[in-house]
């Protein structure tokens, strides 16, 4: 009789453990903290609307390429990316994060031209 109780208790424990596995698997993974954006400033050299990329040349002479998305906020350019594409030579400030090998722009700001 005592053996049957131990056996039933062991089976009930195993059943509860097995039932908990699918519940644990359905829980979403812990979210990773979002990376803080990096800000890079330079001269706009190219916008490729088809590839959704833009390139700038920094004051140090480095050429950098960024990918933008439909969620990228564009400040200081009429008509968004279409307006930005006509502004080669303008100074821009790009807020971006690294996603894999890409610099993904979250915000592109066209800076006011300096008065001469």
Average pLDDT: 85
Tally of DSSP β-strands: 5
What is the helical fraction, as a range of percent?
25-40%
CATH superfamily of the domain at 38-110: Copper binding periplasmic protein CusF
Just give the CATH class of the domain at 38-110.
Mainly Beta
- The topology string of helices and strands comes to HEEEHEE
Describe the structure.
This protein has 116 residues and is an alpha+beta fold. The chain has a domain at 38-110: Beta Barrel (OB fold (Dihydrolipoamide Acetyltransferase, E2P)). 25% of the residues lie in helices and 41% in strands. It has a five-stranded mixed beta barrel. A hairpin with a 2-residue loop joins strand 4 (91-99) and strand 5. The longest helix is centred in the first third of the chain and has 25 residues, at 2-26. It is rod-shaped and about 100 Å long. The model has no long low-confidence stretch (mean pLDDT 85).
What does the secondary structure layout of this molecule look like, with pairings?
Layout: H1 2-26, E1 38-48, E2 53-58, E3 63-75, H2 81-84, E4 91-99, E5 102-110
Parallel strand pairs: 3-5
Antiparallel strand pairs: 1-2, 1-4, 2-3, 4-5
Summarize the structure.
The chain is of the alpha+beta class. The protein has helices at 2-26, 81-84; strands spanning 38-48, 53-58, 63-75, 91-99, 102-110. The chain has a domain at 38-110: Beta Barrel (OB fold (Dihydrolipoamide Acetyltransferase, E2P)).
